[in-house]
Amino acid sequence: MPPEASNNWRRFYDSFFGDPYWAWHDGLDIDALHTLTPEEQKEAEKLFLEAVNEHDTRAAVGLGEMRSQKAVPRLKELLDKATGKELVEVAVALARIEGDKSYAKYIIQVLKNNPFWYDRLWAAMHLREFDSPEVVEALFEAVKDPDYLVRNHACDSLLYLHGFEPEISSHQEIFKNIITPHEGEPAEEDYKKYETAVSQLRKMFREKENSK
Fold it and tell me: Is the pLDDT reported for residue 1 higher than 70?
């Protein structure tokens, strides 16, 4: 870190190159990245390009935010190596840089197939950046995910994509059907409730479309 570093540079550096736990816990300080001077942004891009890898994806996120064309070859290499949350971050970064929504297929893959609930949650959250019939159907399917937080974020992303405030708890008649009121794996009757929630969401979206 240069001795003449600005406060924004320190904020940026601490978030993107400091303790990864705090970046995970508090979220990346994206605002600090965007308030760097042009000279600082060049230095940040250089650091990101040196640091980008599939295990600590903070650099990939930063390169995506900066729309760094220099990062594209390296990020494409990572598509073949990264999995889970890391794959989501790399795909989102490439989509932002290239303006190519087809990278959603990698995120859908994580949402549908990853065994770890947090990775599926991350995919459900980020799919709201990709508006396509394939994405919408993948999110509807995720409303029936065995994990509550995945169901919740899938609903929020669907609401966002259909022009609603992304807060499923504001729609109590639907919200109550994605909650499992007991410990452990969902039972057969729980999955029937999730199916009902999907039907309710589809109906709500149709009604909004028909009202235009």
Answer: no
